[in-house]
Write a structure and sequence with these properties.
two-stranded parallel sheet, 145 residues, single chain
């Protein structure tokens, strides 16, 4: 029974997160479309090196969050709707942080695209009816958080 609730909750939250991302025109760096990003935007060697660094940073920052999610799912009671609602409230900020980390990685790459690459990004966003993200400049990238 617990397994059914867990799978239902995960499916619900991943569906919600997909809908939440429809509004922004995200690239999904570090995901399954990395090779497509490289080809579509014809990234140069310097851009590739920077992107790979950011992907590794993203994986490291999200690894700790994934561990927290796994721990939460494993240890949180899930035998009734109230417990599931409580689990959902604890899960949401973790999911939101992962989405935020991914979005920031996308913005870093957008910040180093040249004018033609960025125009291509804007064009693709318009075709998909999504809101383009603003790039983060190199000065903003270097600023500690």
């Amino acid at each position: 029974m617990k397994l059914i609730y867990t799978h239902s909750i995960l499916l619900f939250f991943f569906t919600l997160s997909s809908f939440a991302q429809l509004m922004d025109c995200t690239l999904g760096i570090g995901g399954k479309d990395t090779e497509t990003i490289i080809k579509v935007f014809q990234l140069n060697d310097k851009q590739l090196v920077q992107m790979e660094t950011w992907i590794q940073d993203l994986k490291m920052s999200n690894e700790g969050i994934r561990e927290q999610i796994d721990n939460l799912l494993e240890k949180h009671p899930q035998s009734n709707p109230e417990e599931i609602q409580s689990l959902a409230q604890k899960f949401k900020p973790l999911r939101d942080q992962m989405i935020s980390n991914s979005k920031k990685c996308d913005q870093k790459l957008l910040g180093i695209l040249n004018e033609n690459q960025y125009r291509r990004y804007i064009s693709l966003c318009e075709e998909a009816a999504r809101k383009p993200l603003a790039g983060i400049s190199s000065e903003e990238i270097k600023t500690p958080e």
